[in-house]
Design goal:
about 475 residues; mainly alpha; two-stranded antiparallel ribbon; 2 strands; globular
Length: about 475
């Protein structure tokens, strides 16, 4: 039985790698269209992935053993790691000896986890096929994240996300959005595709070229943050495009289950009923105003309007963990750079493409803290933790506290590990924070690029990106001996 389940995991993996060969075809087509000379290398990558995938799949193609729920941890982790490894192939074929395999995997992992950290330089001079491939990696990663966050993680009960399976208020009280994961996935992907198309259209109408509009729509909706230009979003220097980006970053940071419910009911009411969304919007507005005022008072920009333009954009970009930049916020005065890195830990809503700890967990931790203060004043009082008017079970609170402890502990250990391999303390702190929250840009040597870090540091940060994207538990549970024993 155990052997048959392992064979089933192998079957899924082989199918996934073979299927990944298809993701090489669009960049090959783009390369052919722009005649940049890289189309053949993408096609070679496609053939290698197809052959490798079929070699893994064919020996176990007749195995159809039903997996247990706990096998989901292994499937999710193995699939994500494998895609990052095979996704590095085009970078390796196209750019050797300029980049190593570690660099290629870092770039691939960054794209698929929608972190947006990069080791590439002179991006403007790269072939169009490569530029498109980087943007596509983020978009496909975001596509997987939406289904992972809304349909799979609640079933695996990761870090309190079962709240969305059994105890979520309002429109999400049902155990599934649609009866089966495949149907749920299709519904979510259609919404994801629709939002991406609208974003690309808005960028194009706002003045971007069609190539840039599609590429930046991919990274905006996926909350990836990679750009087709070295200077990132600052290259456009266009307030209209910045407003478009802010709108779609905020939209992508909302739980896709709410988008689904609103679309299904043809009503905006679900947006106004969700407790997490209200706090998310309030935090964005509050931090945006605070940052803008601080920038104006420090004299960084000459007017209130200019301060708000740059401050609001950067707050939305960082809190949603997109990582777009219209300026180098690491050189902003006072407390602002540190505050921005800290709000990346909050992140967006659960069930979105955002990184970070998620707003719903922050709400629960805050209300638990308030409850403990109340208990000190009234020791015999029964004070439940509520979200959206419904009581939260002790099981969910235990999971949230466990997640918080592991998240903070992982961040501290990654920071220490980076410092131990020669990274200076400020850069180590910022890089660890930027990668575990899937933000991308940090402070110090990684404010715009990670190329200066050594290979060991890049391996550590690749692991940090994966931990952050798979919500810590999914990865760490595989290191438990009891997981393999039973």
């Amino acid at each position: 039985m155990k052997h048959r389940r392992t064979a089933t995991v192998q079957r899924i993996l082989g199918f996934l790698i073979a299927g990944a060969s298809l993701m090489m075809l669009p960049p090959a087509l783009v390369s052919w269209w722009y005649a940049d000379g890289t189309a053949s290398l993408f096609l070679v990558s496609a053939v290698i992935l197809l052959v490798t995938g079929m070699a893994i799949f064919l020996p176990v193609r007749h195995v159809h053993e039903e997996l247990r729920l706990r096998d989901g941890f292994l499937v999710v982790a193995v699939c994500w790691i494998s895609l990052a490894l095979v996704g590095a192939l085009p970078f390796l074929l196209l750019m050797q000896p300029e980049i190593s395999y570690v660099d290629a995997v870092f770039e691939s992992m960054s794209g698929l986890t929608t972190t947006g950290a990069t080791i590439l330089t002179n991006i403007d001079s790269l072939p169009r096929g490569v530029l498109y491939y980087r943007q596509q990696l983020q978009w496909l990663g975001g596509l997987g994240i939406v289904v992972l966050a809304v349909a799979i993680m609640p079933m695996l009960r990761i870090g309190g996300m079962q709240l969305y399976r059994a105890e979520s208020p309002g429109p999400q009280k049902d155990s599934k959005l649609t009866p089966r994961i495949t149907e749920t996935a299709k519904a979510l992907w259609l919404i994801y595709l629709g939002i991406t198309a609208l974003c690309a259209l808005a960028y194009w109408l706002g003045g971007m070229s069609l190539f840039d509009a599609i590429g930046h729509a991919f990274s905006t909706v996926a909350i990836g943050g990679m750009s087709t230009h070295d200077s990132g979003f600052a290259w456009f220097d266009n307030p209209t495009l910045e407003i478009v980006a802010i709108f779609f970053m905020v939209v992508a940071g909302i739980n896709f289950a709410i988008h689904f419910t609103s679309w299904k009911r043809a009503s905006a009411q679900p947006y106004f009923q969700d407790a997490e969304l209200k706090v998310y919007a309030s935090l964005l507005l509050g931090f945006g105003i605070l940052t803008s005022i601080a920038l104006y008072l420090h004299g960084t920009y000459g007017s209130v309007a200019e301060s708000f333009r740059y401050g609001a954009f950067q707050v939305v970009s960082v809190m949603t963990t997109t990582g777009f930049s219209t300026t180098d916020f690491s050189i902003w005065p006072g407390f602002i750079p540190i505050m921005l890195i800290c709000i990346a830990f909050i992140g967006g809503c659960a069930g979105s493409t955002c990184g970070g700890m998620k707003v719903i967990r922050i709400i629960l931790l805050y209300r638990q803290a308030i409850r403990e203060i109340g208990r000190l004043i009234h020791p015999n009082a029964v004070i439940p933790v509520k979200i959206g008017g419904r009581k939260t079970s002790p099981t969910v609170m235990d999971a949230v506290w466990g997640f918080f402890f592991l998240y903070v502990s992982s961040f501290v250990m990654i920071t220490i590990a980076l410092n131990g391999v020669g990274v200076d303390p400020v850069t180590a702190y910022a890089a660890a924070a930027a990668c575990i929250t899937n933000l991308g840009p940090g402070l110090g040597d990684v404010s715009s690029n990670y190329a200066s870090l050594n290979s060991t540091a890049k391996v550590i940060l690749s692991f940090a990106m994966l931990m952050g994207r798979l919500e810590i538990f999914t990865l760490l549970v595989l290191f438990s001996p009891s997981f393999w024993r039973h």
